[in-house]
Amino acid sequence: MTKPTPDPRHTLTLRDVSEASGVSEMTVSRVLRNRGDVSAPTRAKVLEAARALGYVPNKIAGALASQRVNLVGVVIPSLSNMVFPEVMTGISETLDGTGLQPVVGVTNYLPDREESVIYEMLSWRPSGMIIAGLEHSAASRAMLARAGIPIVEIMDIDGEPINHAVGISHRRAGRQMAEAIIAAGYRKIAFLGTRMPNDFRAKKRLEGFEEALAKAGLALVDSEFYSGGSALLKGREMTAAVLDRTPEVDFLYYSNDMIGAGGLLYCLAQGIDVPGRIGLAGFNGVELLDGLPRKLATMDACRLEIGRKAAQIIAQAPATSQVEELFPTLQPGDTIRRS
Amino acid sequence: MTKPTPDPRHTLTLRDVSEASGVSEMTVSRVLRNRGDVSAPTRAKVLEAARALGYVPNKIAGALASQRVNLVGVVIPSLSNMVFPEVMTGISETLDGTGLQPVVGVTNYLPDREESVIYEMLSWRPSGMIIAGLEHSAASRAMLARAGIPIVEIMDIDGEPINHAVGISHRRAGRQMAEAIIAAGYRKIAFLGTRMPNDFRAKKRLEGFEEALAKAGLALVDSEFYSGGSALLKGREMTAAVLDRTPEVDFLYYSNDMIGAGGLLYCLAQGIDVPGRIGLAGFNGVELLDGLPRKLATMDACRLEIGRKAAQIIAQAPATSQVEELFPTLQPGDTIRRS
DNA sequence: TCCTGATATGTTTGCGCTAACAGCCACGGT
DNA sequence: ACCGTGGCTGTTAGCGCAAACATATCAGGA
Fold it and tell me: What CATH number is given for B170-300 in this structure?
């Protein structure tokens, strides 16, 4: 148990299996890949030898020789916010039957980091790339564009995709929520969200939201931003801050469900009448909300479906660019007055 | 925008950069890897040519030639439960300076899937592997043992590692929590947890927990298991079920914080005196708890630290096996009576 | 002057595998 | 008998790069 390798031999190659089973390397290769015609007895011999030796093929050599790599790069900003794991689920599900395999890279919302993650991934010559968002550095776009593989930008369709895109219009989502809120009779509306300058989708939602408010002759009466920390806790704190600073506020629009949930718990604890005195809404439709004492209004971001569709596009590698718009549904929950 | 490749040429190789800059492929290779002596003017010429062409090195070829791959395989059961993303953070953080890069594989707690993920990863000849848990199929253990690379099994140290291990003793964690609960005077204790037969760590915590109860002459008065769905919601439902079925219960031990949080919200909503009438505790120490109206008792699983230490071991590739035991701290929160 | 050694660049080779093709054999039709 | 065909296996070449070694160039010392 002192050395990782229990035996002193070199790492195994096709040659070892070939010698052990008495056939050529090529035949071994064919057996292990289920390609071409190999007689049943030969196949059995080879499989047995491979199993006995504990042979694991070297995909690096295989990929170099065949010029094919069964990997799909997936570049996302974060794993810790509930939304991308679900996208990943959709991707994995769909890729599962195809022989393709996702490889995840995380950028932490940093454009520089995104660029280097993309570069690193492309250097492995994947069969396709799935990338969150439409905003990338010029260098990133150039690399992706000339990689010669299908590129799918996901989550957002408000912009010009490099190749394919699958997502929702966040601007429209913001607008729709604003319209619903106004229709329910709320007028003193505040926004609470993330400060991150690179969360373009949150920014677009806010733009759409304000646009719809403006159309109704309204403007935000207050806003509050945060970064880092426990989103649930930040939701409480920001809510407290806004209610304290702007007591007349009658609606709080959160940029994500997690801070919305924090706000909801705070309001309930304070005995505030929700949705009578104050209405609340978030964004994402995360599963977590189901467990809350009251259902937060939100808007489903179609995460699973986005993952599935993106993976489908990669798997099919269509010749022409596709932009798939998905349409989120507004879930009024119990935190917007019924009109 | 119809074809992914804007230009008709083949994909670039070192040769293209070499021709464009008028030096040999080898010199280009040296420049791009910062290896060996290259004069400043040559370096500049090469970099400029590479940039202008948009050259992205082919790591497949590089890895085959150099027999070195800067990837570290990370095999985890799930991304959706808050615990592994944090482990990943620790791993990424630590690997960042080393030139190594994590590649994640997800098993969904399925041993078969774990085996194929491991096989797939090993076939890319990574520099090391980090794997959650100590329980693997015989084939998996064999593959890992003879891969000739550092293997770190994380989260748990109650068992025999293949090579290195970093984690906590879940059995001890369960025991400690039971002792704290008993010391606080609770006697009618119930367990609520996941049904998943392959969550060995939860199982070990329960074993340790029951062992300590037995030592105090106690036994669980009830238990409830779930699988799938929104953990927060399941926590509410299971709590309701247990309280209904076993009204005399005075403590609820949850196998994770998420269902614990659901239970806590339920108890508060029911106006139950926590921790007077009923005490509650979870496990993991997730950030989410900070945002709850009352702090759930829990036990930190040292996730970040586990990720860091595991990555350190891979980076150093020590000759001898290491087992690093970390010691979780019990956070009594507000849901256990102060003795 | 020649030699030494450092610096800078080029050449050869092969990593482990698979595409493409070549060979071999048995069988059946004519 | 001949050829063709299909099933099975082997041979050759090369994927793109980097390790190891070879070569050129030049400064400085003996």
Answer: 3.40.50.2300
What class, spelled out in words, does domain A14-57 have in CATH?
mainly alpha
Domains A69-169+303-328 and A171-299 share a fold: yes
Q: Which residue on chain B is closest to A61 by alpha carbon? A: B64
Tokens at B185, concatenated: 């005077």
Which segment of B70-84, B137-151, B175-189, B203-217 scores lowest on mean pLDDT? Answer: B70-84
The residues that bridge with B190 in the sheet, in sequence order, are B222, B252
Give the model's confidence band at A339: pLDDT under 50 very low, under 70 low, under 90 confident, else very high: low
Name the strand (E) or helix (H) holding B50.
helix B40-53
Residues B288-295 have a mean pLDDT of: 91
Q: Model confidence over B85-128: pLDDT tens digits?
A: 899 999 999 999 899 999 999 999 999 999 999 999 999 999 99
- Summarize pLDDT for A206-253 with one digit per residue, the tens: 999 999 999 999 999 999 999 988 899 999 999 999 999 999 999 999
> Residue A25 CB closer than 7 angstroms to strand D?
yes
Of the candidates B160, B130, B187, B172, which has an alpha carbon nearest to the alpha carbon of residue B301? Answer: B172
Q: How confident is the model at residue A7 (pLDDT cuts 50, 70, 90)?
A: very low
Q: Which of 70-99 (B) contact A at CB < 8 A?
A: 79-80, 82, 85-86, 88-89, 92
A77 upstream amide cis, omega within 30 of 0: no
Residue from A51, A130, A288, A298 whose CB has the most chain B CBs within 10 Å, to mutate: A288
Q: What is the mean predicted confidence (pLDDT) over B11-34?
A: 93
Q: Indicate whether B206 pLDDT > 90.
A: yes
**Calpha distance B239→B248 (Å, rounded):** 13
**Which one is the CATH code of B68-169+303-328: 3.40.50.720, 3.75.10.10, 3.40.50.2300, 1.10.150.120?**
3.40.50.2300
Which residues are paired to B128 by β-bridges?
B72
Q: Which fold has domain A69-169+303-328?
A: Rossmann fold (3.40.50)
Residues 119-148 of B with CB under 8 A from A: 119-120, 122-125, 142-143, 145-148
Q: Which CATH number is A171-299 given? A: 3.40.50.2300
With contact defined as beta carbons under 8 Å apart, do B94 and B311 qualify?
Answer: yes
Where along chain A do its domains lie? 14-57, 69-169+303-328, 171-299
Condensed to tens digits (0 to 9), the pLDDT of residues A10-32 reads: 789 999 999 999 999 999 999 99
CA distances from A337 to A243, A276, B331 (A): 19, 6, 40
Q: Please, which residues bridge with residue B300 across strands?
A: B284
Tell me the three state secondary structure of residue A102. strand
Distance B18 CA to D28 C1' (A): 34
Residue A21 (CA) to nucleotide C23 (C1'), in angstroms, measures 21
